[in-house]
């Protein structure tokens, strides 16, 4: 079938597009290849899929309403996976307008495309950051998400509300996936694993925030792609038992669902660094610093709902995942 994937020059989007193409699907890939981080890495990702006969590249920006509308009219995708967004918690503090343009206006244009050219299923990326000030670990989709601590998180919460609105008003079948900390080969340079690896190999110190008292649900990219691929085949239906008096926030009387997608385990940041040191064969120079604005001390996903619906079961352990990243990093950058 024909699937529109946004963010195909990005980390998760590129891996997903490759998976879908290898499975025999036709992929329309949207990305503006912006300079938020190294464009050469994005271009290298695109080379992995650019020559595939069933891949169609669309290099345009989400906030360009006319171009997005024309893309939907021309290709008429049967399903959509919307992963493109302005990412990064810290960056949102200094560049708020970028997040409104890409994450809110851009998502509105995707929703309008799904409305005007009805699709079987829209799967869109949300984030664990929507849990904000919540300290109830593991995070559950039953938990309140009304207190985000970054504009990035607020825009992704807005995406969830916007998608529900289009599901309710126009019947767009929509599933939101709250991604936790995704890592692996071809990862983002602004993420901890990439930053730590580069610094350690260069003999430079690494910054360890909250004095090392941090925990994250580190999830390997292949497990994420497996989950997205499976849920893409399960379009949500209205829940006839949904009761507004005792409402489950992740379900609805509309064709709408929200799920956590993570490893369902929380790893201490210091243990994560220990594993990276073992894989690199080098010790890190650790500089311990206070918590950064917009950050949270711990995350962990409750994925029971996703397990029930698609049999989601992450398989990749931290030691294997980090080793795979280190092998890729050394090969890609030609360093030992």
What features would you describe in this structure?
The mean pLDDT is 96. Strand 1 (2-6), helix 1 and strand 2 form a beta-alpha-beta unit. The protein has 336 residues and is an alpha/beta fold. It has helices spanning 11-22, 39-50, 65-75, 89-94, 96-116, 151-170, 192-201, 221-232, 269-280, 304-310, 318-333, and strands spanning 2-6, 26-30, 55-58, 79-82, 121-127, 174-179, 181-183, 206-208, 215-216, 218-220, 256-261, 267-268, 286-288.
| Main β-sheet, spatial strand arrangement | 3-2-1-4-5-6-11
- Poorly predicted regions are none
Count of alpha and pi helical runs: 11
Biggest sheet layout: 7 strands, parallel
* Beta-strand content bin: 15-25%
Structural class: alpha/beta
Give the overall silhouette. globular
Helical content band: 40-55%
Averaging pLDDT over every residue, what do you get? 96
Number of strands: 13
Succession of helices and strands: EHEHEHEHHEHEEHEEEHEEHEHH
Q: Radius of gyration, rounded?
A: 19 Å
What is the straight-line distance between the termini?
Answer: 42 Å
